[in-house]
Amino acid sequence: MPQTNLSDSPGPGTRGGGGIVISARNLTKKFGDVAAVDGISFEVRAGESFGLLGPNGAGKSTTMRMIGGVSRRSSGELAIMGLDPDRYGPEVRAHLGVVPQQDNLDEELRVRDNLIVYGRYFGLPHSYLRPKADELLEFAQLTDKAKSKIDALSGGMKRRLTIARSLINEPRMLLLDEPTTGLDPQARHILWDRLFRLKESGVTLILTTHYMDEAEQLCDRLIVVDKGRIMAEGSPAALIREHSTREVLELRFGSERNASVAAELAGIGERQETLPDRVLIYADDGEAALEQVSARGLRPLTTLVRRSSLEDVFLRLTGRSLID
């Protein structure tokens, strides 16, 4: 297929040496007096799965739009595959695949035709698009739906078709904005499998999500953003090691008793969090902590020992609402 040769395009070289495909330095986007993105800096290497994790309104989608060259930054530096997207938007977008937050499939076209017509926007010939569409439908597990109407597809099928469509130009980098919002657990896991396969083939994945389990499953590295700022950065495992314990003991005494019992748990584990519905005890050995609870004559209604997760990191850093 025809490709734009980035090495022949004017603009800055790839920053930081080989392998860095996104470089942001003090990146800012303002809407009036409101800073949706407030001076963030990060780098992404080729072949990485990189996540932007945070609540709604944190600035994740705005950052993605700047990366995609469809929203100009207010200040700072941004290079995508060595090019400034504000100056060389078409050249950058030629090598990107974009999966928007909301599916925007053409409901007037059937499934296979959605891929072919979209590919024509890139100037790709039918001789390339016909076999490529069949290949992508197989990848998305939609071969038997090729002639179906869009409104006959489930939410998970539409999402997989949107991802397949984004791959029609064989992009080097795939931007996914909240890829599994609204999907049931089975559909989410099928989609995760498709994304794992893309990463194995060398495609760089950039995704936004407010699902912590999704970030933990899919991301090699991530930044946690809130109110336009980076609150933490690293691999999911590294963030958990740095900011939490190996295990967490969850105790439920009843909503009326949790707060009053918390004082009787003092000294068990490394630290505690008292929530409206449960008490969390952070400890390297959750079972040993539970034995200490029992030794004090306390009898919770339910108990659970689990490994620490990214959610626990957020509780440690920012509280439940991700407010710094």
Automatic annotation (TrEMBL):
Predominant place of localization: membrane
Domain of life of the native organism: Bacteria
Protein family: Belongs to the ABC transporter superfamily.
Its membrane topology: Peripheral membrane protein
Protein name, per record: ABC transporter ATP-binding protein
Keyword field contains DNA damage: no
Pfam families: ABC_tran (PF00005)
Lineage: Bacteria, Bacillati, Actinomycetota, Actinomycetes, Micrococcales
PROSITE patterns, per the entry: ABC_TRANSPORTER_1, ABC_TRANSPORTER_2
Cell location: Cell membrane
